[in-house]
Amino acid sequence: MTRINVPVLLGLTVALAAGPATRSAGAASPGPASQTAGATPPCIAIVPPSVRGVEGDATQMSKSLSEMFASYLNGPSLKSMALEARLADQAIEEAKQKSCGSVLLTSFERKRGGGGTFSKAAAAAAQGAVWTVPYSGVVAAGARSVAVAGAYAVSSFAQNTHAKDELIVEYRIGTPDTVQKASPKKESLKAKSNGEDLVTPLVEKISGAAAAAVKK
Predict the structure, then answer these.
(1) What is the 3-state secondary structure (H, E, C) of 198-215?
(2) Who has greater pLDDT, 24 or 105?
């Protein structure tokens, strides 16, 4: 006669009964990825930069720089907004009205280094270089959009840049309520040759710092 172990049989029965319920409960519980999939990315608003020591249309230069920052700061996990108001106070108010939680304030200044004369041919080459950089593929499409957005700023700075000139950018990052009181930070580059593009590497570096600060 076969002897049945009752406690073992009862335990197996309970486990089988609970299994489907446990599995269905686990399937119904959303993971972290599904909970954040529909989250709105943080927004950073770009106040039109102030520009000093540069030849050309200052208004167009400021607009071009804003668009360049906006191109760098726009992506899957970050949304950028180039503000229209030109005065800092009004631009910050605009950011509040548009529910943008972070603000980037910048100022550009070029200081002459006495690097000699700059020929018209070199100026034309510097201006045309922005439009002739070869791009291909999906990643390059993003690079092209940045280049086109900042074309006026890059070409205007470059065509008047002499060796030893310095471009200094002061910037602040904060909320609409704190950005004007935030401690300013500086980045700068010196030209090694006539017609060198100092704008793109500085905008890229500051954009990286801004993105990191906003996503903290």
Answers:
(1) CHHHHHHHHHHHHHHHHC
(2) 105
